[in-house]
Write a structure and sequence with these properties.
By secondary structure, the chain is an alpha/beta fold. The relative contact order is 0.14. About 3% of the residues have low confidence. Strands 1-2-3-4 form a four-stranded parallel β-sheet.
Length: 263
């Protein structure tokens, strides 16, 4: 796994040269920066050629106003075209996980519902969605702090306390607080578990289970998720079964990409 594997032209080309010189086929997964994938769409072909089998991408939001606030690139259509290109090789369909955040600046519950509906309808592009509540870290010396961590008030957040554990702050803005964001995340996760396939490094994790009895593993997993109130749907279960049988990942599904929602 690599954190931001596609962060430069030099790195992609350098890694490709090394991988092509090997006398075996490499399989790997990693974080990709979606904006850079849109800037250099030919990287999709190189990544596929190198053996990328799973990609996790921080798209974070589809709302243009929120993307501007957090300095995410505006070219969502370019991002999705690049993802389509990444998944276009039938012999190596890359499993894509898209990561989204509840609680970003200028992101209302109504806007999030539009995003959620679009993601649930989008069965061709994104195999797995990871929803997270916004976390604001306590401003102590550390390797990395986001711009929101550094100055929450500038982005419309009121800090109302410190969360259990001491490293994260309780917050509220015009639309959510940390608790309500967490509650919406749980709902959205449950919705996606019913239709999700394998994206990100899910396949890499499952590869380590290949000698485990599939039926017993899925029985245990299904019971656990059911008790947690987020049962796995038949699409998800079938995707896992397919993976165990073939050690493949992210099988493409038919159908056009739906139009983007209007915010």
């Amino acid at each position: 796994m690599d954190d931001t594997f596609n962060d430069s032209e030099f790195k992609i080309n350098f890694m490709n040269e090394i991988i092509q010189s090997l006398n075996f086929k490499l399989k790997f997964c990693g974080y990709l920066t979606p904006e850079l994938l849109a800037t250099w769409p030919h990287h999709a072909d190189l990544l596929n050629q190198m053996g990328l089998e799973g990609a996790s991408m921080g798209i974070e939001t589809l709302n243009p106003a929120s993307r501007r606030k957090i300095r995410k690139g505006p070219d969502l259509d370019g991002i999705f075209r690049a993802i389509e290109r990444l998944k276009s090789n039938p012999s190596n369909p890359v499993g894509v996980q898209a990561n989204f955040i509840v609680g970003l600046p200028e992101e209302s519950a109504e806007n999030l519902e539009k995003t959620q509906r679009w993601l649930l309808e989008n069965t061709t592009l994104i195999d797995q969605v990871s929803w997270q509540a916004l976390e604001i870290l306590k401003p102590v010396p550390r390797l990395y702090l986001s711009e929101i961590d550094k100055d929450p008030a500038k982005y419309g957040y009121k800090i109302t306390g410190v969360l259990e554990g001491g490293s994260k702050l309780n917050w509220q803005n015009s639309f959510f607080n940390y608790s309500s964001a967490r509650a919406l995340v749980e709902k959205y996760r449950a919705d996606h578990n019913r239709i999700a396939r394998l994206g990100g490094w899910a396949g890499h994790q499952l590869r380590s289970f290949k000698n485990i009895n599939y039926d017993q593993l899925m029985k245990d997993r299904s019971e656990r998720y059911h008790l947690e109130g987020r049962p796995l749907g038949p699409t998800r279960l079938e995707a896992v079964r397919e993976y165990f049988l073939s050690l493949g990942l992210g099988s493409p599904r038919n159908g056009p990409r739906p139009d983007m929602p209007t915010y």
